Amino acid sequence: MIATALKHEVKDLSLAPQGKQRIEWAGREMPVLRQIRDRFAAEKPLAGIRVVACCHITTETAHLAIAIKAAGADAILIASNPLSTQDDVAASLVVDYGIPVFAFRGEDEATYKRHVQTALDHHPNIIVDDGCDVVATMVQERQDQLSELIGTTEETTTGIVRLQAMFKAGVLTFPAVNVNDADTKHFFDNRYGTGQSTLDGIIRATNILLAGKTIVVAGYGWCGKGTAMRARGLGANVIVTEIDPTKAIEAVMDGFSVMTMEKAAAVGDIFITVTGNKHVIRGEHFDVMKDGAIVCNSGHFDIEIDLKALASKSTGVSTVRNFTEEYKLNNGKSVIVIGEGRLVNLAAAEGHPSAVMDMSFANQAMACEYLVKNKGELTPGIHSIPVHVDKEIARMKLEAMGIQIDSLNADQIDYANSWTSGT
């Protein structure tokens, strides 16, 4: 073990051996990030760069942090969600890898905000954000540090929405890389990662049989698609609610029932919000739910379920299982809430499988390198991951899986680039 004199705020450093074992286990499923880390260790593309990462502190995030450090960065980590930190992983990052971490599971809002300030005290050149809290706080409270910022990377839909609003308001004066829109991120992380881990969280928290249940999925973006697909695969009857007519049609064509939340509230057994917006499930919906209906959220922030409205309609709240609370309503029914309305896949489970986070965090690592290589050349605003980077990550993933694909021959290339050839 290395010395632990570096600054940190974690729950218990004695948890480090368990954390290291789990970090190493996750690494078996993350070959792409491992290749990037090895290259970073040789080339040091982030040498002298101060990096702040505000992420879920999980075994997978640990490998991103290790890769960023290998690249030569002076990096620190804080949590992006009070219930997503894996305390043994946080301890191992400090003890075994020499990475300062300021996060522990269950930290309150005041502690979370203090950790954001600690992150900004690091005077970051790059911010790897997950929900845009660090960036927004810098813009609002640390204007004097903006000149030190090379840019930020963001991989959540919620964070991108906030960055777009900042750009419209004229306060996004630096480049931000939209990792969320990379094909190797949202096609896989959002769809397969969220789909599997959300249901994993529900099952761990409740131990109920999903087959035969009616599951209402609020939102049919990539996360909603994955959740609905996996719920159907476990035998559930799936209802989708949407505000976007195109996505609603897509859900219908995919074989799901589509209706308003007003109607779905009365027939659903389990409700999952994945919209990125607030109060998707509100007081009027709780009023008509079945007795014992289960509600949970898999969006980034804990605002999708209006828990204040639920509490106002309740005579009391009790913990019935780990991560599971029962609200006794004034009308005699009860509503079950998992994970305090926070990300159910991290509050009640371990988050996305390592194999999909391999590509997501490969994008994050490459985005950091991209920002440094193009320092001073990227305009303020939101930038996509370069297509060639996205394709390279996909290629590395296929190679690691032992899968080969075809390539165009010269004749096919000529045909694809010609406008004179026809039928």
From TrEMBL:
Its EC number is 3.13.2.1. It comes from the Bacteria. Pathway: Amino-acid biosynthesis; L-homocysteine biosynthesis; L-homocysteine from S-adenosyl-L-homocysteine: step 1/1. This is Adenosylhomocysteinase. GO terms for molecular function: adenosylhomocysteinase activity. Pfam families: AdoHcyase, AdoHcyase_NAD. It is found in: Cytoplasm. It comes from Chamaesiphon minutus (strain ATCC 27169 / PCC 6605). Residues 190-351 form the S-adenosyl-L-homocysteine hydrolase NAD binding domain. GO terms for cellular component: cytosol. The lineage of its organism: Bacteria, Bacillati, Cyanobacteriota, Cyanophyceae, Gomontiellales. SMART domains: AdoHcyase, AdoHcyase_NAD. May play a key role in the regulation of the intracellular concentration of adenosylhomocysteine.
